[in-house]
Amino acid sequence: MYKQTKLYGILKMKCPKCHKGDFFKGHPYRIKTLGEVKEKCDVCNQKFELETGFYQGSYYVSYALGVALFISVAVLHFIFKEKVSPISLMINFVIILFFLLPLIYALSKIIWANFFIKFDKKDVKN
Ligand SMILES: [Zn+2]
Question: Could you tell me the distance, in angstroms and rounded to a whole number, from the CA of residue 46 to the centre of ligand 1?
Fold first, then answer.
């Protein structure tokens, strides 16, 4: 059941249609293939770039993920520190953002693709 949810496909970075083939050419933190999406799925042949510049829309998703990350950092800051200065909050946010950037970049692309490519149940066995 979990395998059929979009969350599974996104977290495992699998093809949005069949949840079996890999979506990216390599690991998100592999510098050589950073965020590079495969042309099509190896398993179901789904094209991943639906039109030219398709992934430009994923900037909106990465913006939303960035805001969510900032809110998370701010909440953690308020929980664990008694006095919070805006400067220390910003420094911590930038440091965390720097290390999570490849992940956010990859997640924004696969989330964006999941908006437009529907999951097809019959391509999944078990
Ligand atoms: Zn597929």
Answer: 6
Residue 123 pLDDT greater than 90, yes or no: no
Whole-number Cα distances in Å, 22 to 19, 54, 83, 99, 100: 8, 18, 45, 23, 21
* β partners of residue 22: 14
* Maximum CA extent, the chain: 55
CA distances from 108 to 59, 80, 114 (A): 7, 29, 10
**For residue 19, what are the domain limits?**
2-123
Domain count, the chain: 1
| CA 21–ligand 1 middle distance (angstroms) | 5
| Mean per-residue pLDDT, 90-118 | 95
